[in-house]
């Protein structure tokens, strides 16, 4: 029997820091080194977005200039527009993520354009990636719920997934941006999306805002998803989810998956150590469970 493998993408440096006050580049690089030491193979390193809207990502090009020190890791950057995609490619990123929300209200608040307008730009983003042999991933934000419009109709997610396929995206991810979904809803949406994406790799991004993030991530794995995002210490959160406790913690996810017989690249003790570095970098406690309790003692 083949052991299931899940690729964990570490997102602390981007999603984790996006709502924090800007920290020095030196602190980011210290966190990057700690994350690299976990054995992780994919890292979301930065975002090429408006520095006035996301000040913590203003040094994206400076961060990108240091990534060559870790040649075994695939680094990606979040982009919100074709211009951002061009900046990321020019900075040397070999993978980019483009976010689209099915909600017009969220899309306008997040990127200043409607859902349909953002979806239409997938073609431009993919073309920019193709020209430079860069991997393009489409992330569907608020895939289950929008903080403004409530539950997201599954068909809207399916339509964006189909557009990503039609325009030639390399990967797709569905994101529980505000941490509201639960395992049954996760499985239901995956069942709706899979028939329209052919063999496009499908990932999941979950927040633990209401305590169901890890359960939802495990439900996604049980439904065949083999790519998950997480953040050391549970660092991060959505600007539109007041009181959000952030992303699922990398160390908690590794503990859950590895102890359940799922193969992962990330070392548990390394992830806990990186969470300590993240806590020091931002100067406040983080919600990760293993950061507080540690791994269980083994005989």
UniProtKB/TrEMBL annotation:
Q: Which residues form the signal peptide?
A: none
**What SUPFAM superfamilies does the database record attribute to this sequence?**
Aldolase
Entry keywords, A to Z: Lyase, Metal-binding
In terms of Gene3D superfamilies, this protein maps to: Aldolase class I
- InterPro entries recorded: Aldolase_TIM, HMGL, PYR_CT
Which NCBIfam families does this UniProt record tie to the protein?
PRK05692.1
Give yes or no: UniProt keyword Isomerase. no
Q: Which family does it belong to?
A: Belongs to the HMG-CoA lyase family.
Locate the Pyruvate carboxyltransferase domain: which residues? 6-272
Top-level taxonomic group: Bacteria
**Transmembrane regions listed in the UniProt entry:** none
Name the UniProt record assigns to this protein? Hydroxymethylglutaryl-CoA lyase
Q: Which GO terms describe its biological process?
A: ketone body biosynthetic process; L-leucine catabolic process
Record-linked Pfam families? HMGL-like (PF00682)
